[in-house]
Design a protein that fits this description.
alpha/beta; Urease, subunit C, domain 1; TIM Barrel; 7-stranded mixed β-sheet; binds zinc ion
């Protein structure tokens, strides 16, 4: 058993507690939370005390690319379509060992930032393997690419093979999903085929959607840098005369999907937001990445007004340079309890995991983090946690 006391405890779903404590049972679940004087200290329980610390639920990072951790600071390309192509080239040059080390480094950096759950997209499987090896929590979405409709069968077969290989690593703490990457890398046929497959297998789905203006131009007009690149490969590009969100809606994939995680959603209007809400989608909001790439600002207030589930994500360290999730709340203009809720229970809700994590409630898994108390409302330059616990196990600090 583990008993952690702190100068202030923020359950998120209940008022904050001064001089509080949390008791974690042998199954890694929260057994008690309250004023320290009322929380039992069973004989033999490991006791950790942070009189000047702030104890919060573990943070939930709704969008990462952990396999790219080793590429931090290495892509200087500024035009987005070229930046994406450069990432592809760098990935082609990396070895499986590099991806493995990179993913492991990414998991540890997340824990150091107080993050206890990640929603990661990748193509190598290394992040899921690292999470399984190190005992982390998260959802790993295996990416699938294929802009050429003639190669749909081939892409789907590769996806099924990857899912078959990685499936045994899924557990109570680790889920495996799929990610048809983005409208400019996935054909109509492949979107439909992956949706059918995911529904059949009960796999969660994440998609990069409505991120750049170039993507909107590609979908609406069939022109721009993404169209040029596909046409150079002999792939026919069609103008869809609609937004990326409406495009997925017309394909019938959003409506049939059960709660897709839509990453970015910057280039959206009120009709798009209503469509996302009606489809039960959630949004992974990545304000710093959107800013760095010059995509603009996602309409967080409108998402919330519409009742969309929204969590925050750091995106890859290649884009933003670090995995500091609290800096995303800052960049999103969120403060105090609102920031903390969005980083914890709202992130968990966006991933469909709020019955297991996201708040300090008796019976939930003990995912939590302790920060020095001055850090809670004013993110410091580096939001390093003093302690990070996943399912009752100390993973950092
Ligand atoms: Zn991304």
């Amino acid at each position: 058993m583990l008993r952690i006391s702190a100068g202030s405890v923020h359950p998120v779903t209940a008022p904050s507690i001064a001089d509080g404590a949390v008791l974690v049972d042998e199954r890694g679940k929260i057994a008690a939370v309250g004023p320290a004087a009322t929380v039992a200290a069973p004989a033999g329980a490991r006791q950790l005390e942070f009189p000047d610390g702030t104890l919060v639920p573990g943070l939930v990072n709704c969008h990462t690319h952990l396999e790219l951790t080793h590429l931090a600071g290495r892509n200087r390309e500024t035009a987005f379509a070229r930046w994406i192509r450069e990432i592809r080239a760098m990935k082609d040059a990396a070895t499986p060992e590099q991806f493995s080390r990179s993913a492991e480094q990414g998991v540890r950096a997340a824990w150091a930032a107080g993050v206890t759950c990640v929603a990661d997209t990748g193509s190598t499987g290394a992040p899921l393997e690292a999470l399984a090896r190190l005992g982390g929590r998260g959802i790993y979405y295996q990416e699938v690419f294929g802009p050429d409709p003639a190669k749909c069968g081939e892409s789907l077969a590769e996806l099924r093979q990857a899912v078959g290989r990685l499936g045994p690593l899924a557990s109570r703490h680790l889920r495996l999903g799929v990610s048809p990457h983005a409208p400019y890398t996935v054909s109509d046929a492949l979107y439909r085929a992956v949706t059918d497959y995911a529904l059949r297998e009960g796999l969660p789905v994440a998609v990069h959607l409505a991120e750049s203006r170039e993507e909107s131009e590609f979908v609406r007009d069939g022109t721009g840098p993404f169209a040029d690149a596909l046409q150079a490969r002999g792939i026919t590009v069609e103008a869809r005369h609609c937004s990326p969100v409406q495009y997925l809606g017309r394909l019938g994939v959003l409506e049939r999907a059960t709660g897709w995680l839509c990453i970015h959603c910057v280039q959206v209007d009120e009709a798009d937001i209503a469509s996302l809400r009606d489809a039960g989608a959630a949004v992974a909001h990545c304000p710093r990445s959107n800013r760095v790439h010059g995509h603009g600002t996602a309409p967080l207030a409108a998402f919330r007004r519409a009742g969309l589930r929204v969590g925050l994500g750091t995106d890859s360290v290649v884009s933003v340079g670090d995995a500091d999730l609290r800096a995303e709340a800052d960049a999103a203009g969120l403060v105090d309890e609102d920031a903390l809720r969005t980083l914890t229970i709202e992130g968990a809700r966006a991933l469909g995991l709020d019955s297991e994590i996201g708040s300090l409630d008796v019976g939930k898994d003990a995912d939590l983090a302790v920060f020095s108390s001055t850090n809670l409302h004013q993110p410091p330059p580096s939001s390093t946690a003093l302690l990070t616990v996943v399912a009752g196990r100390v993973v950092h600090g």
